[in-house]
Amino acid sequence: MSSFLEEIGKKLSQASQDALEKTKRYAEISKINVKLLEEEEQLEKLYANLGRLYFQLNEKEPEIIYQDLFRAIEGSLQNIAHCQKTINEMKGLKACQSCGEEIAEGAVYCPQCGKILNNEVKELIYRICINCGTVSIGEEECCLNCENPL
After folding, report:
1. Cα angle vertex 63, ends 59, 65, to 5°?
2. Which domain holds residue 127?
3. pTM more than 0.70
4. Of 36, 46, 134, 135, which has the maximum CB count within 10 A?
5. Residue 66: DSSP 8-state
């Protein structure tokens, strides 16, 4: 009877070790699958960057085999620009003609590059925040940096 129990114990021990090995193998496979997915994503990004660079370098004179793709890309870029313009108009925004920054429709100057946007403005009011020293241009009542009243 003792021999029978020892044999069952050995079989259970072997089955436990086999299960442990399978678990380790599957864990390792999972790690490799994650690495594989990361590499595939990286490869897709590299292909996209290569295609973008090729398009930028050859958009004026694409090779014949790429002309249809170039036209499709140009059409998509125009559609994107139109959608962005429509959204900005709905939000009351426009693009600075100097730097392209999104600014309020009635802005007097671009806060990004400082370009005066309205030719009728001849004099700007400069205010210096006594709290943080930020220079404000225009008629803001509060500092754009620390929101302290000007």
Report:
1. 120
2. 106-150
3. no
4. 134
5. G
Burial of 32 (0-12, 13-18, 19+ CB in 10 A): exposed
Distance from the first to the final alpha carbon of the chain: 95
Helices then strands, counting H and E runs in the chain, come out as 2, 4
Q: Are residues 82 and 134 in the same domain?
A: no
Is residue 14 located within the same domain as residue 55?
Answer: yes
Higher-scoring residue by pLDDT: 28, 120: 28
How many structural domains comprise the chain? 2
Q: What are the C-alpha distances in Å from 95 to residues 89, 109, 142, 144?
A: 10, 11, 24, 20
Q: What is the pLDDT of residues 27-37, one digit of tens each?
A: 999 999 999 99
Rounded (10°) CA dihedral 39, 45, 51, 53: -120
143 and 111 co-located in one domain: yes
Task: Mark whether 71 and 145 lie in a shared domain.
Answer: no
How many C-alpha atoms does 59 have within 13 Å on its Cβ side? Answer: 11
